[in-house]
Every structure is written in C-alpha cells, then in structure tokens.
Amino acid sequence: MAQVKFEDLLGTGAHFGHVTRKWDPNFKPYILLEKNGVHIINLESTIESIEKACGFVRDVVSKNGEILFVGTKKQAQDIVQQEADRCSMFYIVERWLGGTLTNFSTIKKSIKRLRMLEKEGSNLYENMTKKETQMLNREKVKLADQHRGIKDMRRLPDALVIVDAQYEDTAIREASRLEIPVIAIVDTNTNPNKVDYPIPANDDSMRTIQLIISAIADTIVETREKSSDQVEKLNKDIQAKDKSVKKSSTTPNILEENDKSIPETESDELSGEEE
Fold it and tell me: In the chain, where are the structural domains located?
C-alpha cells in the first residue's frame, strides 16, 4: 500500500485549516492547535485516516468493486480526472447532477442517448436540416461533458472518493441515502461525522489533494496487480496439477505392458527345460 509520510503532508501545507471563526466543533478531535487565528490540523491523525481509507479501498477493489471519484471544485478537477484514469475508475469533475446516484436509472438513459449520438454511421442525422443537426451536436457536447467520467458505469459504485466534503454535500447526501461508503478530504469547516472515512486535511491546497488522491489511486493499482499475480499463480498451479494427473494416468499402462511381457519370459524358460 502506498504510504504518505508526515514530511510530505507538511510540505504540501496539509496542516493549514480555515480561520477559527469558521470551524465546525465536530472537527475538534483532529485539531492540533490554533495559531494566528487559524486552526492547525494534526497530521498524525491525517496519516492514520489515509491508511484506514486505503485499507477500505483495498478491500473494495479486491472484491472487484468500483469506486467513483468526485472533485468538481476548480483545484481538484484535473487531479481527480488524471488519477481516476490512471487507476481505471470512474469520476465526476463537472457539476454534480442531482440524482446522479438516487436517480441513476435516469442517468443511464441520458448516457444511452449520448452513445446513440456518438455512434458512427447512425441514421439519426438522416433527412435533418442543418439547424436540427447543429442542435443534436450541441446536445452531444453537453452530454459528453456531463457524463464523460461515468459513461461506462453500468451500476452504482461501491464507494465514493470525494475531495471536499463541504463542497460536495449533495453527493454525500445521495451516497448516505443509498448506504454507499464515502471517503472524503475534510477541512476544519466541515463535520467529519457525515462521511464514513474522513481524511482531515487542507482541501484547498492542490498539492495536498494530489498527494492524498494519488495515494488512493496507487492502492487501487497495487491491489489489482496483486490480484492479477494471484490469478496467474493459481492458473500455473492448476496446469501443474493437470500435468501430474496425466503423468500418473500413464503409469498403469506401463505396468500392464510389463505384466504382459512376464508370461512370454516364463514360457521361454519352460520350453528350455523341456529340451
């Protein structure tokens, strides 16, 4: 599992929270101290939370589970898309559409419509005016922007990874309603109790976001590679057993041939004695 070091978090400014007047009292267990009117986050708690979250991610991925990354705030968009692509998971970096989870059947219809518009050689555009074609193209671009990270998502995800728990409140409420576990970076202005795996850290720092999301993505990649190696080893063991069974099945035939040759030898000896 990818490990995040204390020095790395410190270097990214992960310990800087919001000004004290904006804090959420439920965040108190993760606060180290107050300095110059700003809360300082205890990075030891951050490391512990990252390890716990990555352990959960490992369990989900080892069972072929799917994870949805969510980061629609400007600082997170490129990072979330890049890391989700790297570990072959789904992502949402544009505006969260209400009902993305709770009304997933409608989202699937919208994705189906997008596939139809993108299909090459489709007769959809036949006998259409130039204006109608332009309207369909605009619709295709809009749907592609909305669903580009979840176009291949056939079912609800097994977990969500969220960059800013305060900013993505709608996504968290939908996940909670469907009992989908949520991992989220939580700053001092947010109640950490509203997510299953809170990671206390500065959610406005791009370098902090990169460090934490990369660690989760690394865990996904490593878990898949390990699972792949285990499957390969299992296949080799099965092949070795098959060869062993085939070899043992030929042994009786050899013994039978030896048994058949014995009477011939004995008959030769008997004929020699008669002479």
Answer: 6-100+156-227, 102-149
Domains 6-100+156-227 and 102-149 share a fold: no
Residues of the chain with pLDDT under 50: 262, 264-275
- For residues 147-175, b (16+ Cβ closer than 10 Å) or e, as one string? bebbeebeeebbbbbbbbbbbbebbbebb
Asked whether the beta carbons of 182 and 110 are under 8 A apart, the reply is no
SS3 41: strand
DSSP letter string, 250-265: HHHHHHHHHHHHHHHH
The per-residue pLDDT for range 148-167, each reduced to its tens digit, is 899 999 999 999 999 999 99
Burial of 56 (0-12, 13-18, 19+ CB in 10 A): middle
What's the token pair of residue 159?
Answer: 């977990």
Fold of 6-100+156-227: Rossmann fold (3.40.50)
The percentage of the chain sitting over the pLDDT mark of 90, rounded to a whole number, equals: 68
Closest CA to 30 of 16, 19, 51: 16
Are residues 66 and 104 in contact, defined by beta-carbon separation less than 8 angstroms? no
Instruction: Identify the CATH number of the domain defined by range 102-149.
Output: 1.10.287
The string of pLDDT tens digits covering residues 6-50 is 999 999 999 999 999 999 999 999 999 999 999 999 999 999 999
Q: Which residues contact residue 247 at a Cβ distance below 8 angstroms, ignoring those fewer than 6 apart?
A: none
Give yes or no for a contact between 79 and 210, defined as CB atoms under 8 angstroms apart.
yes
